[in-house]
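We treat protein structure as text, and this decision shapes the records that our systems exchange. Because each token names a local backbone shape, the row as a whole describes the fold. An entry from our holdings is shown next, in its original layout:
>
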Amino acid sequence: MALFLSGCLSACSVLSPPQQAVSGPSPAPLQQLPLHFNAQDKSQWEKLVLPGKPRTNYKLERQPQGYALQAQADASASMLRQRVRIAPERLGRVSFDWQVERLIPGADMGQRDTEDSPVRLILVFEGDRQQFSPKNAMLSELSHSLTGEPMPYATLMYVWCNQCPPESVIVNPRTDRIRKLAVESGPGRVGQWLSYSRDIRADFEKAFGEAPGALLGVGLMTDTDNTRSTTRAWYGQVRLD
């Protein structure tokens, strides 16, 4: 169980909106695109602290190109979340930008004990949890008992890895319901502001081999808790079209 509590699994567990009871209120209404989240909206980003983890510090900082959210991690892991509800047929592109000061020495997102990343853009999707394997069903129940929220049906992360081939899909070592897509690899563009525009549906199908459900959440996360190291990164705007 300690492995469950470490690294990103807890982060992704609490990214999902709370599960509605059968007799409870209906899910939030579907939202229309585009949606645009700025760094200056920091007060609107929900802070999520992970059980037993020191917090990564997020603060607003002015950069030459505009405002950014600076993430300072020191053997820490926490995240910021925006709740959304976008119907699967309306999923288009996600655009985002970030800058990384340095990579994390020894980090390997395919290994349980070193699964850290200087930047993560996280998308969480709805789906039928009845299809979970026994292991994933157990992890979802544990997540619910610890955080009050079940493990999402599927979580797709855009990440920066140390040495994996660009566009690689990395299955989380704790659960196959979390998969990472390496949009950047290696130190070649460290220190630069980089912008991305990704096809959400195509990337989800590449990572999971199935069509996505509704998009339920967007998150940012910089973590160094597994490697016990430090790093700093900046996030700019996030846009859903």
Remarks:
- The two ends are 38 Å apart (CA to CA).
- Residues 1-8, 18-26 have pLDDT under 50 and may be disordered.
